[in-house]
C-alpha cells in the first residue's frame, strides 16, 4: 500500500460509525470522515464478520478447487454456503496433501460495504480482515491485537480466532500481548496502517465475483453498452417466443433432477433411484424401527434431559444426519464455549460419543456445532 492511502475500519458495533484514517508520510492520521477529494480507500473488517478455516485437501483437487471449494466448506460453516462469499489461499503442500486457509463472509455484508462507498464515488481497492493482518508468530507463540470489535489472536499456522475462544484451546497457556496492550483507536489503526504498508500475507476479499476491474474512461463504452443492451433485448425476446411452448415441461424436468440430487445427498447408499417416493418412505419406516443407533426423537430427548440435569440453556437451530458417516450434526445456541464442553461431558456419561466443531460468538452467547457419532 502506498502512502496517502485512506483506511476505513468497518465497525460492526451497534450504533457505531466506521473509523477513518489516512496514512501519509509513514504516519497514521485519524479522520472524522472521508473527505470529498478521496477517490479510493482500503477497507478493514473486524474478524467477527468472517469465518476462517484451515482445510487439508488432495493436491489433485487444487485444479478444480475454485468450483468445489464452497461445497468442501458446507459441513464446516453454520450459514448456507450459497449465501456467503469465499476466498482461500494455499498455505503448504505436504506430499499428496495441501493445506488451504479459507475466509468466508456474508455476501450481504460485502454488498453493503461496497454499496456504501459506491454511493460516495469512492473506489475500494482491497478488503482485508483485521486479524488476518496480524503478523504471523513463531511456533509456540500467539500474537494479540485488541480492536473495538474484540481482542483477536493470530496463531503460528496462520489462522486467527477471538481470544475468548482461544482461552479454551491448547493455546491458553501461550497468550502473549506482543503487539498492543490496550484498546485504543489510534494505536490499533496505526498498527494496521503499518502492516498494510509492508508485504503481508493477508487475503484480499475482493476476489471472484467481487474482483475490482479497471475503470479507465472510454468514449466508446456508452455506445457499446447501448448496442449490447439492444442485442440482448432482442435475444431474450426471441428465446421467450421459442421457449414458451415447453417451458413448463422443462421446469418439471429441472424439479425432478433437483429432487434426485437431494435424495442422493440424504441417502448416498442407494445406487439406483427408481421411485423417489417409495424409496424415501422405506428409509423412513426403517429409521422408525428400534435398533442400536440413536434416532432423531431419541437424540432430542437425550439433549433435553442432559440440559435439564446440567442446568444448561440451549436452543436447537438445526439437526442433520449423514447416513454415509453415521454422524448427526447439531447446531445450537449456548451461553458459552464452556457450556458446550459441559454438554459433551454429560453426553459421554450417557455413552454417547461427540465432538465439538465450529464455534462462533453471537450476541450474549455462542453458536456451536456438535457432531454426534451414532
From TrEMBL:
<comment type="similarity">
    <text>Belongs to the GSP L family.</text>
</comment>
<dbReference type="InterPro" id="IPR025691">
    <property type="entry name" value="GspL_pp_dom"/>
</dbReference>
<dbReference type="Pfam" id="PF05134">
    <property type="entry name" value="T2SSL"/>
</dbReference>
<keyword id="KW-0472">Membrane</keyword>
<keyword id="KW-0653">Protein transport</keyword>
<dbReference type="Pfam" id="PF12693">
    <property type="entry name" value="GspL_C"/>
</dbReference>
<keyword id="KW-1003">Cell membrane</keyword>
<feature type="domain" description="GspL periplasmic">
    <location>
        <begin position="228"/>
        <end position="373"/>
    </location>
</feature>
<dbReference type="GO" id="GO:0015627">
    <property type="term" value="C:type II protein secretion system complex"/>
</dbReference>
<dbReference type="InterPro" id="IPR024230">
    <property type="entry name" value="GspL_cyto_dom"/>
</dbReference>
<keyword id="KW-0813">Transport</keyword>
<feature type="domain" description="GspL cytoplasmic actin-ATPase-like">
    <location>
        <begin position="37"/>
        <end position="139"/>
    </location>
</feature>
<dbReference type="GO" id="GO:0009276">
    <property type="term" value="C:Gram-negative-bacterium-type cell wall"/>
</dbReference>
<dbReference type="GO" id="GO:0015628">
    <property type="term" value="P:protein secretion by the type II secretion system"/>
</dbReference>
<dbReference type="GO" id="GO:0005886">
    <property type="term" value="C:plasma membrane"/>
</dbReference>
<keyword id="KW-0997">Cell inner membrane</keyword>
<protein>
    <recommendedName>
        <fullName>Type II secretion system protein L</fullName>
    </recommendedName>
</protein>
<dbReference type="InterPro" id="IPR043129">
    <property type="entry name" value="ATPase_NBD"/>
</dbReference>
<keyword id="KW-1133">Transmembrane helix</keyword>
<keyword id="KW-0812">Transmembrane</keyword>
<comment type="function">
    <text>Inner membrane component of the type II secretion system required for the energy-dependent secretion of extracellular factors such as proteases and toxins from the periplasm.</text>
</comment>
<dbReference type="InterPro" id="IPR007812">
    <property type="entry name" value="T2SS_protein-GspL"/>
</dbReference>
Amino acid at each position: 500500500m502506498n502512502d496517502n492511502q485512506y483506511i476505513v475500519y468497518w465497525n460492526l458495533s451497534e450504533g457505531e460509525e466506521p473509523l477513518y484514517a489516512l496514512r501519509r508520510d509513514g504516519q497514521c492520521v485519524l479522520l472524522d470522515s472521508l473527505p470529498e477529494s478521496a477517490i479510493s480507500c482500503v477497507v478493514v473488517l473486524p474478524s467477527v464478520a468472517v469465518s476462517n478455516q484451515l482445510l487439508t485437501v488432495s493436491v489433485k483437487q487444487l485444479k478444480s478447487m475454485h468450483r468445489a471449494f464452497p461445497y468442501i466448506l458446507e459441513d464446516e460453516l453454520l450459514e448456507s454456503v450459497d449465501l456467503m462469499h469465499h476466498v482461500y489461499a494455499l498455505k503448504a503442500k505436504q506430499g499428496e496433501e495441501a493445506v488451504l486457509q479459507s475466509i468466508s463472509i456474508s455476501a450481504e455484508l460485502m454488498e453493503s460495504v461496497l454499496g456504501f462507498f459506491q454511493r460516495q464515488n469512492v473506489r475500494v481497492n482491497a478488503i482485508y480482515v483485521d486479524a488476518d493482518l496480524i503478523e504471523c508468530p513463531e511456533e509456540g507463540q500467539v500474537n494479540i491485537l485488541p480492536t473495538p470489535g474484540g481482542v483477536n489472536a493470530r496463531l503460528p499456522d496462520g489462522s486467527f480466532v477471538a481470544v475468548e475462544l482461544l482461552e479454551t484451546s491448547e493455546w491458553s497457556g501461550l497468550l502473549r500481548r506482543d503487539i498492543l496492550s490496550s484498546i485504543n483507536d489510534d494505536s490499533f489503526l496505526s498498527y494496521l496502517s503499518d502492516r498494510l504498508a509492508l508485504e503481508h500475507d493477508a487475503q484480499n476479499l475482493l476476489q471472484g465475483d467481487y474482483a475490482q476491474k479497471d475503470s479507465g474512461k472510454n468514449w466508446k463504452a456508452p455506445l457499446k453498452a447501448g448496442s449490447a443492451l439492444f442485442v440482448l433485448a432482442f435475444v431474450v425476446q426471441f428465446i421467450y417466443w421459442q421457449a414458451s411452448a415447453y417451458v413448463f415441461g422443462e421446469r418439471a424436468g429441472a424439479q425432478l433432477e433437483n429432487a434426485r440430487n437431494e435424495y442422493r445427498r440424504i441417502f448416498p447408499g442407494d445406487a439406483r433411484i427408481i421411485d423417489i417416493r417409495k424409496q424415501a418412505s422405506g428409509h423412513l419406516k426403517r429409521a422408525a424401527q428400534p435398533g442400536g443407533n440413536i434416532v432423531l426423537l431419541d437424540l432430542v430427548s437425550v439433549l433435553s434431559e442432559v440440559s435439564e440435569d446440567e442446568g444448561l440453556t440451549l436452543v436447537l437451530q438445526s439437526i442433520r444426519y449423514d447416513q454415509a458417516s453415521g454422524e448427526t450434526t447439531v447446531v445450537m445456541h449456548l451461553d458459552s464455549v464452556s457450556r458446550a464442553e459441559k454438554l459433551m461431558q454429560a453426553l459421554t456419561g450417557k455413552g454417547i460419543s461427540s465432538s465439538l466443531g465450529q464455534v462462533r460468538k453471537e450476541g450474549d452467547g455462542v453458536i456451536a456445532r456438535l457432531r454426534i457419532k451414532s
